[in-house]
Design brief:
485 residues; 21% strand; glutarate-semialdehyde dehydrogenase (NADP+) activity; 14 helices; succinate-semialdehyde dehydrogenase (NADP+) activity; Ald_DH_CS_CYS; Aldehyde Dehydrogenase, Chain A, domain 1; 22 strands; binds succinic acid; 6-stranded mixed β-sheet; single chain; alpha/beta; Aldehyde Dehydrogenase, Chain A, domain 2
């Protein structure tokens, strides 16, 4: 690790512009999943540190909200440039703590920069309305204002870009933030503190805390000074946080779990579908909430798809994310490995056929073989539950109507994908699928320009697109009377 990388590894909380330890001095070890070795430690903070970070954010909000959109936009452009100038260092930290390949990590850091630039641009386009008045002597204005202090809780699978999606709109609108990055991958989160300082973002505008999820999350959700909570993570924790915020009626944005179907119709371009399937399943070792959970392949093309897909899966290079050519790194930890093994055991017991993979990788630790399971059946656990690992179950289907029903038969509604060359079918299926993101003949669709967000129990609100800024704004109706007109 060179000096430029190590200067981003902060082993302290950032509260009101000060890098500080936990009050108790307690720390948590952070491990590299590729080597099983410790990278460093982070503070084990709790309620008291969180309350101070919220207070710092509330104080900073008083002046930050008064800056012009142009001033904030300029600082955000500087932040964008700094992220790109340090892309390799930030990607190295990301790979070290998360495990994904250096190529994917660099892509994620570039995506973080793109979100910051997008919101730097959007900052200057937060328009209100002047509404035709029903009264001759009154005028009606609708204004948009920053909500205030935003609490952001982010996951380990995209430890850099998930923060960009939250810090970006907060800074753009004039909000301040208190961030809790995931304990497994805190350094990419803490690096945002260094970047914001260097970009000249004032002390207290961005505060970052590590430690006890229940204590920090408890304070963030209950403290009345927090106006909004934005969370990316599991549906289970999202529901709990929503309950906790109910007491103070906070705004909430939730990016939660998924159970993405990937449908291949008989008329699909098979090679394109296989390439899309690899991207939609094995990115980040299957650990994204938009990763395919269920492949549905129409009967006539089923065997050929399984064969070609398996050939492609067998080409994936598993290894330490820092080694050149690695496409799939280790899973985040041994719990993830055990969960994947449970899904495979359940499927084989119920008639699933392992076509490739199916067990821990010879590299040891939390490495797992990319796996394809043919003859998947509705009664198997992954029909309903999110796998979050490199296992691809392939179901066979007969008709369009039938597959739409099966694809929608889940409480989730985040991403879905389908492959067809029939234009009419493309529209019928797109309109029939109850999902927030739809890839038609594409397996990788996230981009800053489009609104990312799920339906049903996959979440509330959007990140990215022109829609992504709305959740950080209050809409105010102003009636100006007594004008004597
Ligand atoms: C995720 O939230 O897990 C996926 C993010 C993305 O595709 O950008």
């Amino acid at each position: 690790m060179n000096a430029n990388t190590s200067r981003f590894i902060k082993q302290a909380n950032l509260i009101g512009g000060q890098w500080v330890a936990a009050d108790s001095g307690a720390t948590i070890d952070v491990m590299n999943p590729a080597t099983g070795k410790a990278i460093g430690t982070i503070p084990k903070s709790g309620k008291a540190e969180t309350a101070r970070a919220i207070e710092a954010a509330a104080q900073a909000f008083k002046s930050w909200r008064k800056t012009t959109a142009n001033e904030r936009s300029q600082k955000m452009r500087k932040l964008h440039d700094l992220i790109l100038a340090n892309q390799d260092a930030l990607a190295e930290i990301l790979t070290m703590e998360q495990g994904k390949s250096f190529t994917e990590a660099k892509g994620e850091v570039a995506s973080s920069a793109a979100y910051i630039l997008w919101y730097a641009e959007e900052a200057r386009r937060v328009y209100g309305d002047v509404v035709p008045s029903p009264w001759a002597d009154r005028r009606i204005m609708v204004t948009k204002e920053p909500v205030g202090v935003v609490a952001a809780i982010t996951p380990w699978n995209f430890p850099s870009s998930m923060l960009a999606r939250k810090i970006g709109p907060a800074l753009a609108t004039g909000c301040t933030v208190v961030v809790k990055p995931a304990t497994q991958t805190p350094y990419s989160g803490l690096a945002w503190g260094v970047l914001c300082e260097e970009a000249g973002i004032p002390a207290g505008v961005v505060n970052i805390l590590t430690g006890s999820a229940s204590e920090i999350g408890g304070e963030l959700t209950r403290n009345p000074q927090v106006a909004k909570l934005t969370f990316t993570g599991s549906t289970e924790i999202g529901k709990l946080l929503m309950k906790q915020t109910a007491g103070t009626v906070k705004k909430v944005s939730m990016e939660l779990g998924g159970n993405a179907p990937f449908i291949v119709f008989d008329d699909a371009d098979l090679d394109r579908a296989v390439a899309g399937a690899i991207a939609a399943k094995f990115r980040n070792s299957g650990q994204t909430c938009v990763c395919t959970n269920r492949f549905f392949v129409q009967s006539k093309i089923y065997s050929r798809f399984v064969e070609k897909f398996t050939e492609a899966v067998e080409q994936l290079k598993v290894g330490n994310g820092m080694d050149s050519g690695t496409q799939q790194g280790p899973l985040i930890d041994m719990n993830a490995v055990e969960k994947v093994e449970e899904f495979i055991a359940d499927a084989t017991k119920k008639g699933g056929r392992i076509v490739t993979g199916g067990k821990r990788h010879a590299l040891g630790g939390s490495y797992f073989e990319p796996t394809v399971i043919a003859d998947a059946k509705p009664r198997m656990r992954f029909t309903k539950e999110e796998i979050f690992g490199p296992v691809a179950p392939v179901y066979k289907f007969k008709s369009e109507e039938d597959v739409i029903e099966q694809a929608n038969n889940t409480e989730y509604g985040l991403a879905c994908y389908f492959y067809t060359q029939d234009l009419g079918r493309a529209f019928r299926v797109m309109e029939g699928l109850k999902y927030g993101l739809v890839g038609v003949n594409e397996g990788l669709i996230s981009t800053v320009e489009a609104p990312f967000g799920g339906l049903k129990e996959s979440g509330l609100g959007k990140e990215g697109g022109h829609q992504g800024i709305e959740d950080y704004l209050d809409t105010k109706y102003v009636c100006i009377g007594g004008l004597g007109l």
